[in-house]
Design goal:
Elements lengths: L22 E5 L6 E6 L2 E7 L13 H11 L16 H10 L8 E2 H7 L6 H10 L3 H4 L4 E2 L10 H13 L3 E3 L2 E3 L12
Parallel strand pairs: 4-5
Antiparallel strand pairs: 1-2, 2-3, 6-7
Protein name: Methylated-DNA-[protein]-cysteine S-methyltransferase DNA binding domain-containing protein
Pfam family, one: DNA_binding_1
Keywords: DNA damage
Length: 190
């Protein structure tokens, strides 16, 4: 039996929807610059600016900059920004749990693992937290190690985590929360 090959449609007839890529902007803060990648007000990435990053914003990210400015100046206690992130079911369950941590509250990777029904998977929870493309929107700075240490993907992440925790009223010294165990937030090992 002979199969017939379909010929491609004539030039210009192909039906394609063109995706408009998110716009990237740089947002300067007292803690260092941020990369903001968004489309139609939905954040696709929000992280520390890195060498080699480039901005192509046409001004459409300005409303996001305004929300960030209000949050980082202490005028707002929430980042009311819609965010689009794709992850595995495990990552999504971790991210969902992180969104339940309120302003000024803390939890540990181990406590998050128990909360999602995966006790003993604190390290995997840490990797899922680190994989989110917009950690500031998610509130990942509120998740710390069981001994009160601040952990992160890189030095920029630790700088941001420290700054955001201080903004929320926590005392951080040399990469460790001070007094958190007394406040009942984190159980710190002796």
């Amino acid at each position: 039996m002979r199969t017939r090959r379909r010929s491609p449609p004539p030039y210009g007839v192909r039906m394609q929807t063109r995706q408009i890529p998110p716009r990237t902007s740089r947002f300067d803060t007292p803690f260092g610059p941020l990369l903001v990648r968004a489309h139609d007000g939905v954040v696709h990435a929000l992280r520390p600016w890195r060498v080699g990053d480039a901005a192509d914003d046409d001004g459409s990210n300005r409303p996001i900059h305004d929300v960030l400015d209000a949050y980082l100046s202490g005028d707002a206690r929430t980042l009311a920004l819609p965010c689009e992130a794709t992850g595995t079911p495990f990552q999504c369950s971790v991210w969902s749990a992180v969104t339940e941590i309120g302003w000024g509250e803390l939890t540990t990777y181990a406590a998050l693992a128990e909360l999602i029904g995966r006790p003993g998977s604190a390290r995997a929870v840490g990797q899922a937290v680190a994989a989110h493309p917009a950690p500031l929107v998610l509130g990942t700075h509120r998740v710390v190690a069981s001994d009160g240490r601040l952990t992160g993907v890189d030095a920029d992440a630790i700088v941001w985590k420290t700054a955001l925790l201080r903004l929320e009223g926590h005392v951080v010294h040399e990469g460790r929360l001070i007094g958190a165990e007394a406040a009942g937030f984190v159980r710190v090992a002796a």
